[in-house]
Write a structure and sequence with these properties.
about 40% helix, 11-stranded mixed β-sheet, Amidase signature (AS) enzymes, alpha/beta
Length: about 500
C-alpha cells in the first residue's frame, strides 16, 4: 500500500486510488477503523462501530472490483446517523427507549448506497430522536467538537459531522429537520447539504417531524457531497412525500458549469440580528469575492422573525404524534414492574425518554389539544405558508440566497443546556429553509481567531439543488481552504 495521508483523502481521490490499485478497500477500511480507535474515545462520534461487518464488506468490495463491478462508491467507508435503519444493526435514535432495537430492514438511502458498494463503519451519535442543536441531548453521552473538545459539534447530526471531520470514514449521512445537517457542518468545518424536501426518500428514517425531516449528506468537500446526493436522491414509492423527479448528475453539473454566474440575494433580516462579529467579517469577505463574478442584491424575507416560533409549534406537534408509538408494547424499552397497563405506559415513557424529548412531546400535545389547535397549530401552518411565499417571491428576483448558518461559532458544552430558548435560537438561520422545503448547504468559509470553523449557507429554490452545489463548489475552489480539525494536528 502506498503511504496514504487520510487528511488528504476524499471520496473521489479514494476511488481513483482504488481504481489504480494503489490501495485496496480492505486497507482503506483498516485506516478508517484505526482513525476511529484513535480519535473516537476523545470525540465520541459513534454509538456503534460495526468493525467485523465493515471488514467483511471491504473484502467483498475488493473481490467485486476484480470482477469489474461498476459501483459508484465501491469500497468507500461511510458512517450513518443512528436514526436511519440499516438491517441487522442497532437503530437507537440515541434514546434509551430504543437502546436494544435492531433494524429489521434497510432505509431506501441505505439500499441505494449498498447497491453502489458503500461500506458502513457504524452508527453515529445524535440528539435524542434528532431533537437538539448540540448533540448534548443524546440519551447516552455528548459528542465533542474536534476543533476544541470543550465545545459542541452542533446537532442533531453532531456524530456524523464529527466522523466526517475526523476522517473516520470519508463521508456520512445525517438528517435535517431544522438545521441538523447544516449547523453541525458549520461547527465542524465540513460540507453539509439539506436537499429539497421530497428529493431524498425518508423511508427508513425514524420520524421526528414528518413534514420537515430530510436525509442529506456530509462530505469533506462539495464534490463528495454532490456524489453522495447523486446516489441517494430519486423517487421512492414507499415514501408518499417523495417527488417523482429524475435527479440530474450533480457532480457532472457542478464541474461543467463552473463558470456560471448568478444573482445572489442577501436577506436583510438575516444580517440584522446579534451575529458574532467574526462571522459577519468572514461573510463580508466572501461577498466581496463573489461581487467579482456574480450580481449581489439585498432582498427581504419579512416573515423570518416568526420562523422559530412557527417551527417550535409545528415540529413538536408532529413529534408528539410520531412518538406516540413508543409505548412499551410493540418494541423498544418496557418498564417491567408495572401493575397496570396505564402504569406501564407512563413509566416506560418517563424512563425511556430524555428531558428534551419530553419537553417537545408536551409542547406538541398541548398545541394539538382540543381548544388550542386553531390558536397554535393552525395559525403556525398559516405563517409557514407566508414564510414559503417570501422565498417564492425572492426567487423571482434572484437565483440563490446567501446567509450565515449560525449566529455564533461553536459554543461550549453545557453553555446552553439549561436555557432551551437560547439553544433553539442557534437554528434561527436554518429553520426557515425546512419550513419552506428548500435545499440549503453549509460550506466552510474560514476560521475564527480561536481556530473554530465558520460556515456560510447557500439556499436555492425548490429542486434547484444543483445550483446550490454549483455556487458552493465555486466558492470552495476560490477559497481553497484546508479544513483539518485541531485534534488531528495535535
Amino acid at each position: 500500500m502506498a503511504e496514504i495521508e487520510l487528511t488528504e483523502l476524499t471520496i473521489l481521490k479514494a476511488l481513483e486510488l482504488l481504481e489504480k490499485e494503489k490501495i485496496s478497500s480492505t486497507e482503506l477500511v483498516e485506516l478508517s477503523l484505526e482513525q476511529i480507535k484513535r480519535y473516537d474515545p476523545l470525540v465520541k462520534a459513534f454509538l456503534y462501530v460495526d468493525e467485523e461487518g465493515a471488514k467483511e464488506s471491504a473484502k467483498r468490495a475488493d473481490e467485486l472490483r476484480k470482477k469489474g463491478y461498476p459501483g459508484k462508491l465501491l469500497g468507500i467507508p461511510l458512517s450513518i446517523k443512528d436514526n436511519i435503519c440499516i438491517e441487522g444493526l442497532p437503530t437507537t435514535c440515541a434514546s434509551k427507549i430504543l437502546q436494544n432495537f435492531i433494524a429489521p430492514y434497510d432505509a431506501t438511502v441505505i439500499e441505494k448506497l449498498k447497491k453502489e458498494g458503500a461500506i458502513f463503519l457504524g452508527k453515529t451519535n445524535l440528539d435524542e430522536f434528532a431533537m437538539g442543536s448540540s448533540t448534548e441531548n443524546s440519551g447516552f453521552f455528548p459528542t465533542h467538537n474536534p476543533w476544541d473538545l470543550e465545545r459542541v459539534p452542533g446537532g442533531s447530526s453532531g456524530g456524523s459531522a464529527v466522523a466526517t471531520a475526523c476522517r473516520m470514514g470519508l463521508g456520512s449521512l445525517g438528517s435535517d429537520t431544522g438545521g441538523s445537517i447544516r449547523q453541525p457542518a458549520a461547527f465542524c468545518g465540513v460540507v453539509g447539504l439539506k436537499p429539497t424536501y421530497g428529493m431524498v426518500s425518508r423511508f427508513g428514517l425514524v420520524a421526528f417531524a414528518s413534514s420537515l425531516d430530510q436525509i442529506g449528506p456530509f462530505g469533506i468537500n462539495v464534490e463528495d457531497t454532490a456524489l453522495l446526493l447523486q446516489i441517494i436522491a430519486g423517487h421512492d414509492e414507499r415514501d408518499s412525500t417523495s417527488y417523482p423527479l429524475e435527479p440530474p448528475d450533480y457532480l457532472k453539473f457542478i464541474k461543467e458549469n463552473f463558470n456560471l454566474s448568478y444573482k445572489i440575494g442577501l436577506p436583510k433580516e438575516y444580517f440584522e440580528g446579534e451575529i458574532d462579529p467574526e462571522i459577519t467579517k468572514a461573510l463580508e469577505n466572501l461577498i466581496k469575492l463573489l461581487k467579482k463574478k456574480h450580481q449581489i442584491k439585498e432582498i427581504s424575507l419579512p416573515h423570518t422573525e416568526y420562523a422559530v416560533a412557527t417551527y417550535y409549534i409545528i415540529a413538536p406537534a408532529e413529534a408528539s404524534s410520531n412518538l406516540a408509538r413508543y409505548d412499551g408494547v410493540k418494541y423498544g424499552f418496557r418498564y417491567r414492574e408495572a401493575k397496570t397497563l396505564m402504569e406501564m405506559y407512563k413509566k416506560t415513557r418517563a424512563y425511556g425518554f430524555g428531558k428534551e424529548v419530553k419537553r417537545r412531546i408536551m409542547l406538541g400535545t398541548y398545541a394539538l389539544s382540543a381548544g388550542y389547535y386553531d390558536a397554535f397549530y393552525l395559525k403556525a401552518s398559516k405563517v409557514r405558508t407566508l414564510i414559503m411565499q417570501d422565498f417564492v417571491k425572492a426567487f423571482e428576483e434572484v437565483d440563490l440566497i446567501l446567509t450565515p448558518v449560525t449566529p455564533t461559532p461553536p459554543f461550549k458544552l453545557g453553555e446552553k443546556v439549561f436555557d432551551p430558548l437560547q439553544m433553539y435560537l442557534s437554528d434561527i438561520f436554518t429553520i426557515p429553509v425546512n419550513l419552506a422545503g428548500l435545499p440549503g448547504i453549509s460550506i466552510p468559509i474560514g476560521l475564527t481567531q480561536n481556530h473554530l470553523p465558520i460556515g456560510a449557507q447557500i439556499i436555492g429554490s425548490h429542486f434547484k439543488d444543483e445550483l446550490v452545489l454549483n455556487l458552493a463548489y465555486q466558492i470552495e475552489r476560490q477559497l481553497n481552504l484546508k479544513m483539518v480539525p485541531n485534534l488531528l494536528k495535535s
